[in-house]
């Protein structure tokens, strides 16, 4: 049976030794409670919950799936009970304001717990995960009355939340949505329409579900400028803040999917359901980005989760599975054959998983610290954090989900034929993680957002904010021979990042299609460079620890060796992406549509 063990040592290495999370907390107002002892206790308890409660349910959720019966959705065996333990443990309230019943701890601390939950059981973790996005949206854009009515129950975990965007005829192009919102005399709105692909839209784990819904007012302008945002609860709420009668919103069906079977993906029908406007009229998409950006960082976490899960199980199997002898001679002569971990190609796959999991961990938790700063920093700190987040969010979401899928596939490959068999869990990992490259905006959409909106539309200002930071890091270590191989390569790629951006920008001035043609290669190039930056930081930390003297020689040596593997085996992929992105749009657009496929002789 597949197993999960929370990587607490690596989490502490990244957060404490590389990112200096306690120095970060010292600067945050209200983070006084996030002491090393407090954080350590939270991580230990979170690890127990993930390992002992959620991990054993991962395969159960895949095998049983969710059941649908006349609008009622039943989650897999053990899911509801696990959620009650989650609520009783106070986990939903960890990173939310004390005035709303939360514990007031930093978002980045909550993200550490989210990593463990996500890796142990992604399908289960989606239920509370979506609630955090709903909470953040109401917290930032809701009225005081809306906060009082909905936030306390969401923060406690008594209620859960969803985001309702997609409709049958429109996915990414939300300007086409048709769901209507008719004003009512009591100040509410009657919401009518159908939403699809709504994760956790209906279930039996909580007393109420608060839907955050995009819809159009009667006088709304066409396109995305005519979208408003509404709170639509499954059960209406009375004056005392308790659930009352059933609202006119129902689950019409659940999808039969490739993976994440334990999470209900619902068709939701709104038939004059009572809803309440959140934020200004016709500005719903702007407000919804609060939810979407949180969800995109959460989806980036899915890439990390599946990389880590694949790595842990692949290493355990590779140490135990006997096949052939090493080419240089027997490594385990007392056994019938050598364990497959001795073979170079198996090590290539394991090191690829390790590089993506541990590098992705540094990227994700750096971003979560930026989220802290956007909420609690000074004006200058908030501006810097928001600009860095705008650049890194599409990179983290798309790049880490692409590499997470690669790592999951490598995991299946390590197991050979056994990886294709359900009992080992590797094929489930592949199926579960495939969705991550699709929802919250596909890789192509994230790439257009990065190159078009975040880089070219700001004339490179957003990019320069990050590349200056990388340049400063390289300058600090440039004369140190210990880090020459990392710093030289990183410095060169950091400079090249600006150069290729300028070249694409110049081409796009003559033909706007050049942006779409270059965007995915540009994003992947960007992701490899960002990951190289974090691996260089980890290498510097590890080398310094080794020279200072440590009892953990193996741990820090492995960090240096993984960094070297990443720089020598993975980072050269950037060359192919540069060639592709600069090859232009003609090789994509020259072919006539009718010439893509010829079936008749």
From TrEMBL:
TM spans (from-to): 515-536
Annotated keywords: FAD, Flavoprotein, Membrane, Oxidoreductase, Transmembrane, Transmembrane helix
Record domain Acyl-CoA oxidase/dehydrogenase middle: where: 163-271
Every Acyl-CoA dehydrogenase/oxidase C-terminal domain range: 282-449
GO molecular function: flavin adenine dinucleotide binding; oxidoreductase activity, acting on the CH-CH group of donors
Enzyme class: oxidoreductase
Domain Acetyl-CoA dehydrogenase-like C-terminal: 466-591
Keyword Disulfide bond in record: no
UniProt xrefs under Pfam families: Acyl-CoA_dh_1, Acyl-CoA_dh_C, Acyl-CoA_dh_M, Acyl-CoA_dh_N
Acyl-CoA dehydrogenase/oxidase N-terminal domain ranges (all copies): 41-158
The protein's required cofactors: FAD
Known catalytic reactions: 3-(methylsulfanyl)propanoyl-CoA + oxidized [electron-transfer flavoprotein] + H(+) = 3-(methylsulfanyl)acryloyl-CoA + reduced [electron-transfer flavoprotein]
Enzyme Commission code(s) on record: 1.3.99.41
Lineage: superkingdom: Bacteria
PANTHER family: ACYL-COA DEHYDROGENASE, BROAD-SPECIFICITY LINEAR ACYL-COA DEHYDROGENASE FADE5
Entry similarity comment: Belongs to the acyl-CoA dehydrogenase family.
Purpose of the protein: Involved in the assimilation of dimethylsulphoniopropionate (DMSP), an important compound in the fixation of carbon in marine phytoplankton, by mediating the conversion of 3-(methylthio)propanoyl-CoA (MMPA-CoA) to 3-(methylthio)acryloyl-CoA (MTA-CoA).
Name of the protein in question: 3-methylmercaptopropionyl-CoA dehydrogenase
Native source species: Marinomonas aquiplantarum
Upper lineage: Bacteria, Pseudomonadati, Pseudomonadota, Gammaproteobacteria, Oceanospirillales
């Amino acid at each position: 049976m597949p197993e999960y063990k929370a990587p607490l040592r690596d989490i502490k290495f990244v957060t404490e030794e590389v990112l200096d999370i306690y120095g970060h907390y010292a600067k945050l107002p209200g983070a006084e409670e996030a002491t090393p002892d407090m954080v350590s206790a939270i991580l230990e308890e979170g690890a127990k919950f993930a390992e002992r409660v959620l991990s054993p349910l991962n395969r159960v959720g895949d095998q049983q799936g969710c059941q649908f019966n006349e609008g009622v959705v039943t989650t897999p065996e053990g899911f509801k009970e696990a959620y009650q333990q989650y609520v009783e443990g106070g986990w939903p309230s960890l990173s939310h304001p004390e005035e709303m019943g939360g514990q007031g701890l930093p978002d980045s601390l909550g993200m550490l717990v989210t990593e463990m939950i996500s890796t142990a059981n992604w399908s289960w973790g989606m239920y509370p995960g979506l609630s955090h996005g709903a909470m953040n949206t109401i917290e930032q854009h809701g009225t005081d009355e809306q906060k009082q009515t909905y936030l306390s129950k969401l923060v406690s975990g008594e209620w859960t939340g969803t985001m309702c965007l997609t409709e049958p005829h429109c996915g990414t192009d939300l300007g086409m949505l048709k769901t209507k919102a008719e004003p009512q005399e009591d100040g509410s709105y009657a919401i009518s329409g159908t939403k699809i692909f709504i994760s956790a839209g209906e279930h039996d784990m909580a007393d109420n579900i608060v839907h955050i819904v995009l819809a159009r007012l009667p006088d709304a302008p066409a396109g995305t400028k005519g979208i408003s945002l509404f709170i639509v609860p499954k059960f209406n709420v009375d004056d005392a803040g308790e659930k009352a009668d059933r609202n006119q919103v129902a689950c019409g069906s659940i999808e039969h999917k490739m993976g994440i079977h334990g999470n209900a993906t619902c068709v939701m029908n709104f038939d004059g359901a009572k809803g309440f406007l959140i934020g200004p009229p016709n500005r719903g998409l702007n407000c919804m980005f609060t939810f979407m950006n949180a969800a995109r960082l959460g989806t980036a976490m899915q890439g990390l989760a599946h990389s880590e899960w694949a790595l842990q199980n692949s290493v355990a199997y590779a140490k135990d599975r006997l096949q052939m002898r090493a080419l240089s001679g027997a490594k385990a002569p007392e056994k019938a054959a050598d364990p497959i971990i001795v073979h170079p190609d198996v090590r290539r796959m394991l090191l690829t998983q390790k590089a993506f999991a541990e590098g992705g961990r540094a990227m994700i938790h750096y971003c979560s610290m930026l989220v802290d700063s956007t909420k609690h920093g000074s004006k200058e700190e908030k501006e810097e954090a928001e600009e860095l987040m705008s650049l890194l969010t599409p990179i983290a979401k798309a790049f880490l989900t692409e590499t997470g899928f690669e790592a999951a596939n490598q995991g299946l490959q390590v197991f050979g034929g056994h990886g294709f068999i359900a009992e080992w869990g590797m094929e489930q990992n592949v199926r579960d993680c495939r969705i991550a490259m699709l929802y919250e905006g596909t890789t192509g959409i994230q790439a257009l957002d990065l190159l078009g909106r975040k880089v070219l539309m700001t004339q490179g200002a957003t990019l320069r904010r990050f590349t200056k930071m990388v340049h400063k890091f390289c300058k600090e270590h440039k004369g140190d021979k210990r880090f020459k191989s990392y710093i030289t390569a990183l410095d060169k790629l950091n400079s090249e990042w600006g150069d290729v951006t300028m070249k694409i920008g110049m081409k796009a001035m003559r033909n706007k299609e050049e942006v779409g043609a270059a965007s995915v290669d540009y994003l992947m190039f960007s992701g490899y460079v960002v990951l190289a930056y974090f691996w260089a930081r980890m290498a510097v930390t590890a080398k310094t620890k080794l020279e200072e003297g440590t009892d953990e020689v193996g741990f820090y040596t492995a960090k240096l060796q993984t960094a070297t593997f990443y720089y020598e085996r993975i980072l050269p992929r950037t060359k192919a992406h540069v060639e592709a992105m600069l090859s232009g749009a003609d090789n994509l657009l020259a072919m006539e549509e009718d010439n893509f496929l010829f079936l008749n002789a």
